[in-house]
Structures are given as structure tokens and as C-alpha cells.
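Reading a protein record of the kind used here takes little practice once its layout is understood. The reader may check this reading against the record printed directly beneath this paragraph.
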Amino acid sequence: MSAVLAHAAAVPMVVYAGCRLAVLERRLPLDTMVARLRRGRRLPAALAVPSAYAAVVDRLLRWLPPHRRMGRCVKRSLLLLDVWSRCGLDPTFHYGVGRDEAGVRRAHAWLGGVAPGLPTGAPEAGYVETLVV
């Protein structure tokens, strides 16, 4: 499948993942939600192009649900966890906290355990992992 077709095919799946995330985030604690997002139906091999899903999520992140208060990195990580799990990958969700230069508490989320070369939102210096699911 060409890159253009892979990206076009990824759009409806990413929108669906956003809607699914919007419903689950209202009802479930984070660790349970992560487990539920992993249990989606496996995509056919022709549609399982993880790099296309990463590109589409990055491009549409601002407009995708949920629209409630959720940091960009958390939302991105949860969306990619859903679609990459459907591609047959086994990503690990990481959540960490730390303080910036001004002493303000910050949080950051990223994915681990995926194929090299996929953008995971890698951990930033100074963040202590508080949740790995």
C-alpha cells in the first residue's frame, strides 16, 4: 500500500480511537483505560501501518476527541496505544511527573516497547515514572 493510501486509510481509525478514548476517559481510571484500549480488534495486515497512524495522530491531535482537559502527550500516547495495539504492537504506557526550572510540577506521558523508528514521545529529563502499564 502506498504511503498516501496508508495515511488516508488511517484517518477513520484514528477518529474512531479518539471517540473511544473520549468515552472511556470519563468512566475509567487511567490504568484500567489503558488495559481497555489495548483490547481492540486487530487490523488486517494491509491496514496495520504504525507509522501512518503516528503521522495522522500528530496531524489531527488538536481536533481529535477528547476535548476535555488532557495534556497533548497523554492524549497522543493513549490514541497511539489504541491504534498501535490494533496493528499488532505491544506498546507500554509510561506516565511521569517532575518539576520545571521554575519549580512548577509537570507531567509527561510516552510509549515504550514499540519498533525502533516510531515516534513514542520519549521521556524527558527530570521526570520520574509514576505509572507504567
Notes: The first strand starts at residue 92 and ends at 99. The two ends are 32 Å apart (CA to CA).
